[in-house]
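Supplementary Methods. Inverse-folding protocol.

Structures were first reduced to a discrete structure-token string of length 202. This string, shown here, constituted the complete conditioning input.
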């Protein structure tokens, strides 16, 4: 299906922009037929700016382009959904989304707890005692848990595999924080790799 511009090419339709990886809604803009066609042709999101009264490619000033991955139109053909790979923050405030940053999952909460244990050790804290033994001890523990994950995966014990995977993730988070590395640092690397693979497919 295509957007319904047949009766009026200057009609403005709402275009919802979504991160193709995280599925977070990044922003809402409006497109006329020319903006829509330019978006498809250049594979960078272009809107019709009502304030500027002209076509406006997102990122033309900031460099934070929105690279189009796929486009969908709703059942009435009067709204557009565009999934993108953002090159930098989408919002002019510096946020990744104009609707604010996406809520973080439990792994981020656990990362915060680990950081607190490292900065303010508690007497009976397993995390603090583990790190106090040095990075070599933490790294060794990660290796041990990784071996356990492999063993359970090979034996087909799903419940044990889940438990050992949880142990591995926890100890890996401790090792990362002890080295000043965050989950977001790792996410950025994975996103960059994904973007490169998507480019290679084109």
């Amino acid at each position: 299906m295509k957007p319904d511009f047949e009766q009026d090419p200057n009609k403005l339709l709402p275009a919802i922009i979504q991160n193709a990886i995280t599925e977070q809604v990044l922003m809402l803009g409006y497109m006329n037929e020319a903006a829509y066609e330019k978006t498809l042709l250049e594979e960078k999101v272009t809107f019709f700016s009502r304030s500027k009264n002209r076509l406006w490619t997102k990122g033309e000033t900031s460099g934070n382009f929105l690279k189009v991955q796929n486009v969908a139109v709703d059942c009435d053909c009067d709204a557009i959904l565009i999934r993108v790979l953002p090159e930098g923050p989408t919002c002019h405030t510096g946020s990744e989304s104009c609707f604010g940053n996406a809520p973080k999952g439990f792994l981020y909460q656990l990362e915060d707890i680990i950081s607190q244990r490292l900065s303010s050790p508690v007497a009976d804290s397993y995390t603090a005692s583990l790190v106090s033994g040095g990075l070599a001890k933490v790294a060794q523990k990660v290796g041990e848990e990784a071996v356990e994950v492999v063993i359970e995966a090979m034996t087909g014990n799903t419940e044990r595999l889940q438990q050992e995977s949880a142990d591995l993730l926890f100890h890996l988070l401790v090792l990362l924080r002890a080295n000043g590395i965050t989950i977001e640092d790792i996410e950025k690397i994975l996103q960059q790799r994904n973007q490169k693979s998507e480019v290679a497919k084109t």
